[in-house]
Amino acid sequence: MKDKLLKKSKFLLEATLTSYSQIFFTENKILASILIVVSFIEWWTGLSGLIAVLTAIALAQLFDYSEITTEKGLYSFNALLVGLGIGTYFAPGLEVLLLIVAGAAIAFFSAVFFMGIFAKYGIPFLSIPFLVGMWLLLLAFPSFTNVALNMETLYPSNMYFKMGGDVLVSVMEGLSSFFEDTGFDTYFLSLGAIFFQFNILSGVLISLGLLIHSRVNFLLSLVGFFVAYGMYSYLGMYTGSLNYTYYGFNFILSAIAIGGYFLIPSRQSFLLSLLLIPVLVVTTIGSDRLFMYFELSAYSLPFNVIMIGVLYALKIRYDQTKGPILTLVHLKNPETNAYLFDSQPAKKYAAFTVPIRLPFMGKWTVNQAHNGKYTHKDFFRFAWDFIIKDEASSKEFSGEGLLVTDYYCYDKPVVAPALGTVVNVLNTVEDNEIGATNTLQNWGNTVVLQHENYLFSKLSHLKKGSIDVNIGDVVVEGQYIGKCGNSGRSPYPHLHFQLQGTSKIGGATLFWPLSEYLVDNVSKLNFVQKGIPKEQDTLLNISISPILQSAFKWSPGDEFQLSMANAFNKPVLFTIRNEIDIYNQSFLNCLNTNAKLYYENNGKTFSALNYIGSKKSALFYFYSSLYKVVLSEHSDLSVATRFPVHHLYRFPMLTIQDFLVPFGIFLKGNYNLSYIEPEQTFNSEKIELKSKIVGHHKVSLFSSEIVVHKNREINIHCDTSKKSKIILKWKNTLYA
Questions:
Q1: Handedness of CA 150, 151, 153, 157 (dihedral sign)
Q2: First to last CA, the chain
Q3: Which stretches are transmembrane (predicted)?
Q4: Tally of CB atoms within 10 A around 308
């Protein structure tokens, strides 16, 4: 009973706090606490807002809605705004208490309604429910004869004296005098107006909360407002009007939304947020004049209209690889989103979520790539032709090359590049003699696989009679499809491979990167997360190492002992548990420190996605050492990627970088993992690896030597930037 009550109280506190911070698109508790304090500068306004929040949370519980969504404040932040508005306009009383509950209910049901509609298009409903609730209440107000206006808000000095005596009055007057006619007075008033607190102190406190939460959001709030302020002046409008209309928050929120939240912070998102300000200025002025006829304020209508329109336009772009990039997963602040996005090895291909791998085994060479010299043009420009070359002679055939059987790729197996369904098969076209082509049956023997509703792959010029699948068959990645041949428009044996948007043999090609393959650069193999193979690239799929595969294969609930020691201390034991969150995301949880390492293991690679928590945990050094591991048996392999810089640097360098994120990420963190040649080639008992992270001018920030044993133990010797040596030992207690 006690535990249940404690859990319920924690849930209620969490949902209440995020109702406040959600207005700035975050769940930051420090900012939320500051916003609650701000809302209570005028006590009745603050109390009205809190009652509205609790009403919305209670309704969400009553209707048994998702506790996760409720805890994020998505059902209640609009109710909060309605409650704050009611407390500002109407004097305290039981009648007004009824209006608060009714207004919160209107905002809640409107949020549910608009959430359902907008979710279909992947766009947010923002503060539309607040507008619906607030406008309905104000339009109905003339009929409420027992409800009085809150006259205290007309005499703020008296109100401040009641709240904090002469001290608070002096603070308010001092701030007003200090910022008078600087533009900052209007900026702070606009920030405070978001919470219906029309004083500079509120704005100062909110800006401080923004600065603590996110340097990017703080910067964007300033830039967004002062660009609009300049526009008002440039268009000949009285900038002082922003002091009493308080519409400046539209520009602040839009700059934060576009520049830092819904888009990954970048030069493009920053520029777009600036370009939208003139549009918002015109929309705000026009909305204000229109709503004057109804004796209503436009409130946040300009922000909602422009933001929803822009986000929808960005969502339906054909090419999602070009900036600005939409934020797919929102983390604690825009800086973190930017740093993690920057560390993605194939960030420009992030929108291509279906992995398509090489359709063959062994080493093949790209003979013709995209926009090829011969046939890959126009509708068919996004295709590849693959052949096999002799490594010593670089020839693609033996002898004179006069017979199809002279060619190394002929009769070699072709495999499925991904899970899919066979939707088209042609298996009766004769193979050509060398130099001859069959233009009547251009693609020759072909298999078309469907991977998604919109994504198909086509494998052509296969050997007659070699295809071993039928229409309707479900195939898995790597499954045998047929053999490379010389059918169709093919003067010499090769495999034609393309992605397309239809099941038709001969359909137009579709731009799509290939995933997780190796490129042979003579002296070593380079790993490519996602990429477009180029002409003459020699490629191969990842050949899995049983030792690495076993060492990184963890089941939910598995526990590990991770011991950490340096040259002077005894080993400290950390208990690590493998868990899965509600979003089906795997993570390692340090039970000692509650640090979490989110990761993905797709059977070919182990990739750390994010680390949250104390850097004193042994799990952090495990994360730094094994940030990206290809589970390959090749010993001449090199893996290179970017490491998130916010896990490498501290104040003041990181703080400066935070402010500069919209203009570029200048701090460096380059991660490299190299595979050491084993002493015993066959039946090796261990695999040795070396990882390092370097910054500017190749300064070493971290390095480690790693030994992965056949019994699943992992030993790591780390050197940090502070020249300290740390020894880690990873042991699966299940197999201990």
A1: negative
A2: 38
A3: 43-62, 74-91, 97-118, 125-149, 187-211, 218-238, 244-263, 270-287, 293-314
A4: 17
Cβ atoms of residues 409 and 388 within 8 Å: yes
Task: Report whether the peptide linkage leading into residue 265 is cis, meaning its omega lies within 30 degrees of zero.
Answer: no
Shared domain for 490 and 631, answered yes or no, is: no
Q: Are 545 and 685 in contact (CB under 8 A)?
A: no
> Which residue carries 């001449």 as its tokens?
636
Name the strand (E) or helix (H) holding 499.
Answer: strand 495-500
Phi-psi label, residue 357: left if phi above 0, alpha if psi -120 to 50, beta otherwise: beta
Successive 10-residue mean pLDDT values, the chain, 736 residues: 83 95 94 95 93 97 94 96 94 92 96 93 93 94 85 64 70 80 88 90 94 96 93 79 73 94 95 94 91 90 95 87 85 92 85 93 95 89 95 90 94 97 96 92 95 95 96 96 96 96 94 95 90 95 93 92 80 92 92 95 94 93 95 91 94 95 94 85 83 90 93 90 78 66
| Contact of 666 with 657, CB cutoff 8 Å | yes
Contact status, residue 734 vs residue 559, Cβ threshold 8 Å? yes
How far is residue 523's CA from residue 517's CA, in Å, rounded to a whole number? 17
Beta strand pairing status for 637-642 and 525-531?
Answer: parallel
All residues at 6 or more sequence positions from 680 whose CB lies less than 8 Å from its CB, including other chains? none
Q: 10 Å Cβ neighbour count for 645?
A: 23
CATH number for the domain that contains residue 401: 2.70.70.10
Instruction: Say yes or no: 482 and 559 in one domain.
Output: no
Place of tokens 């409420």: 144
SS3 208: helix
Alpha helices in 141-214 (DSSP H): 156-179, 184-193, 200-213
Domain containing residue 443:
364-512
Instruction: Tell me how far the alpha carbon of residue 214 is from its chain's centroid.
Output: 17
Is the same domain home to 1 and 126? Answer: yes
Instruction: Enumerate helices (H) and strands (E) in the chain, giving the number of each.
Output: 19, 24
Using left for φ > 0, alpha for ψ between -120 and 50, and beta otherwise, residue 547 falls in: alpha
Whether the CB-CB separation of 33 and 49 falls below 8 Å is answered with no
Instruction: Give me 129's structure tokens.
Output: 């429910």
